[in-house]
Design a protein that fits this description.
With 269 residues, the protein is an all-alpha fold. It has 14 helices and no strands. α3 crosses α14 and α4 packs antiparallel against α11. The radius of gyration is 23 Å and the shape is globular.
């Protein structure tokens, strides 16, 4: 039986919906080529001055590099903690498992403003006793981001663990395997795709985090989203549109590359 394929009407409607959803993103592209110092659509002259400012202004490179480092470290910390937490619940199955899981997911359901204020006062208190893990520091931002994104990693890894047959772990335990051996050689290999997915998702969430970052940073730890926020709030710098187009191009390239790899795999299969 041939698989059902959408008809021409459905294809056209789907394309129109996709274009409608993409219009806000597409509208940024001509704005990024404006020759003016304010946001506007170029009419006659098109300019690359704002793309050039991304290179000439070291603040953009510094903010991007800081966001990448914070995203990587936050993703590693949150995914590592989430993996240990989720696998511990799966292996031990404590009596109040649902309560522990609910507490771990609390930052996901709490209002962002409440979480931001809590982390702000917490880091301010830490600033009184040290200058490393404190307000407006690299480590402080990593800690705050890890707290906010760890619940998402817990969800992904818990879903991956729910698909494992417990008899595999019981067989390893009956053969005398230690807890560490069961974790490293039995459980983790079976949830590696869930862990990798959690690592990627937490990096993306940390990269785009702005709400909490505005509360816990000032002048020292200026991430790329905060720098873009400052540009929109202070003088509406058209370089914001240019950096948005660059990020959009990166996302499109990644999606197209993933689609091409999947297509090649299907062709080989």
């Amino acid at each position: 039986m041939k698989p059902l394929a959408p008809g021409p009407v459905v294809t056209v409607l789907a394309a129109l919906v996709a274009v409608f959803l993409m219009m806000p993103l597409i509208a940024v592209i001509p704005v990024s080529f404006t020759p003016n110092r304010y946001l506007s659509v170029p009419t006659e002259e098109w300019s690359l001055r704002h793309y050039r400012s991304l290179i000439d202004n070291p603040a953009w490179a510094a903010g991007t590099w800081l966001s990448i480092r914070i995203g990587l470290v936050s993703a590693l910390v949150s995914t590592g903690l989430a993996t240990l937490f989720a696998t511990g619940l799966w292996m031990i199955e404590p009596r109040f498992k649902a309560l522990y899981l609910g507490l771990a997911l609390l930052p996901m359901v709490a209002p962002p403003v409440v979480s931001a204020l809590t982390l702000y006062f917490f880091l301010i208190s830490l600033s009184k006793v040290n200058s490393f893990l404190a307000f407006d520091t690299f480590a402080g931002v990593v800690l705050a981001h890890a707290v906010m994104i760890a619940p998402f990693a817990v969800v992904l890894i818990s879903v991956a663990l729910s698909q494992i047959d417990r008899r595999i772990d019981l067989a390893a335990r009956s053969m005398g395997a230690s807890t560490f051996t069961r974790l490293v050689k039995v459980i983790l290999p079976n949830i590696r795709f869930g862990v990798l997915s959690a690592l990627f998702l937490t990096f993306v969430l940390s990269w785009e985090e702005i709400g909490v970052t505005l509360f816990i940073t000032s002048v020292n730890a200026v991430t790329l989203p905060r720098l873009m926020w400052m540009g929109l709030r202070d003088n509406i710098d058209p370089a914001i549109a240019a950096i948005s187009v660059v990020l959009l191009a990166i996302v499109v390239a990644v999606v197209l590359t993933k689609t091409l790899i999947q297509h090649l795999r299907r062709s080989d299969g």
